[in-house]
Amino acid sequence: MIHNNADSSAARQVCFVTLGCKVNLYESDLMAAQFAKVGYTCVDREDKPEKPSDVYIINSCTVTSTGDKKTRQILHRCRRENPNAVIALTGCFVQAFPDKAKELDGWDILCGNTQRKIMLPLVEQVLTAGGKIVQIDEHTNDEKFESLQIPFFAHKTRAFVKIEDGCNRFCSYCIIPYARGRVRSKPITELKTEVAQLAASGYQEIVLVGINLSSYGQDLGLRLIDAVEACCSLPGVKRVRLGSLEPELLTHQDLERMAALPQFCPQFHLSLQSGSDGVLKRMNRHYDKAEYARIVNDIRDCFENASITTDIMTGFPGETDEEHIESMQFAKDIKLSQMHVFEYSPREGTAAAKLPQLSPQIKAKRTDEMLTVKHENEQAFLETQVGTVGQVLLESHFIETPVSLRAEGYTCNYTPVYIDFSPDTDKDTLKGRILTCKLTGIANGHAIGVPVNE
Ligand code: SF4
Predict the structure, then answer these.
(1) Which end of the chain is more exposed for a tag (fewer CB within 10 A), N or C?
(2) pLDDT digits (tens, 9 = 90+) for 98-125
(3) What ranges make up the beta strands (E) of 6-85?
(4) What is the percentage of the chain residues whose pLDDT exceeds 70?
(5) Is there an atom of ligand 1 within 6 Å of 168 CB?
(6) Phi, psi of 418 (to 5 degrees)
(7) What is the pLDDT of residues 7-19, one digit of tens each?
(8) Does residue 177's CB lie within 6 angstroms of at least one atom of ligand 1?
(9) Bridge partners (DSSP) listed for residue 160
(10) Between the CA of residue 208 and those of 61, 162, 230, 243, 410, what are the distances in Å?
(11) Quick one: which of 278, 337, 280, 276 has its CA closest to 310?
């Protein structure tokens, strides 16, 4: 196909469509920075760009089958939007299921996720010479972390910094180790350079993310806490938060070192997946309920007002009624602060997909029941926060009413907070600011914050 698009990169618009996790978001922003550097106008599909783009980069996710379906739909939508555009499909769906990806219509470039820095030259090659390119390299065991640093994040309050890639765990339901390869970590020197630059450009909160973040440093003789301390040692870094964690890789020493860091945000997203020992075993998770509870209690001993947030799955193959009830009871007993509830979705190529599956009706019923536990836990957590004073980092979106300008933000332990200002307040003076607030009440799943000392 001849792509009679704008004839210079300066006039070209590239649109990024990112599905999935914070690591994918980071990598899309990384690719955007490379295109921007050579003059492209970078837009995000979320922002509903006014005009069709010359290039589309679809960064896919394959954690659930819904991700695959969404990828197909977006591919067709972009092709309809500009029949002459260069469309590149990349990400975990392409890496994990290359043959399925090749069967799809509408792409010009199929690129795996082993290297993000090759996307720009591949696009420029197709823009000039036409044709189709398939570049999907296998992950190897001696693969190194792809050293690329991000200079900025498009319209984001906090900076997500990818420090780890890959996973060696092979939980029985998970396709990620096949899509992302083995654990590899960003060297500390590169991390410090990147975070120092982000802090210098005004980001007050750094969120360290990875595919299996808790495994950070296993290939470098380091631990996650070393990366956290390195970030907290840099000037201008006000807050350091962690992405999703595998619980059993956190030691008491790690927690004590984290508790000694004033910038450390005491929110622990400890991925639980199930509150039933039988199900955890069949998931090939590396802890049981007792171990999870011990780690949670250790965190609560080390931090005054930490939050424990989590992911929990319902409807895992073979899950009995008793195991489901056990899982709900454990989630209640642990008093989780926030819960992301997922319905099990079979992933071709995983061990669990070969097991007898539960009916969609049973899965839906159990998801509803677990969502009730979620709402009760989250309400109970908010009630524990009323009366406390917290540092609230304000987001960039607001709710405007004739009587108030309502800002949304998050405390260090990730309590969602609403703060009301007079309707004529200038939003730009609020975005990204950290305000000391007393939490005085609850509304719509948020605490109500009143600024103190302002
Ligand atoms: S730890 Fe388990 S769930 Fe998480 S990415 Fe690795 S295999 Fe998947």
Answers:
(1) C
(2) 999 999 999 999 999 998 899 999 999 9
(3) 13-18, 41-44, 55-60
(4) 96
(5) no
(6) -100, 135
(7) 566 679 999 999 9
(8) yes
(9) 207
(10) 20, 6, 12, 6, 17
(11) 337
CA of 170 to the centre of ligand 1 (A): 6
By most ligand atoms within 8 Å of CB, the mutation choice from 176, 246, 284 for ligand 1 is 176
How far away, in angstroms, is 167 Cα from ligand 1 center?
6
Yes or no: say if 72 and 104 are a contact pair by the CB < 8 Å rule: yes
Q: What residues have CB less than 8 Å from 172, skipping those under 6 apart?
A: 282, 283, 284, 350, 351, 352
CA of 171 to the centre of ligand 1 (A): 6
Q: What angle do CA 217, 21, 151 make, to 5 degrees?
A: 70
**Looking at the predicted structure, is the pLDDT value of residue 291 above 80?**
yes
> Is the CB of 167 within 6 Å of ligand 1?
yes
pLDDT digits (tens, 9 = 90+) for 352-384: 999 999 999 999 999 999 999 999 999 999 999
Asked whether 212 lines ligand 1 (CB < 6 A), one says: yes
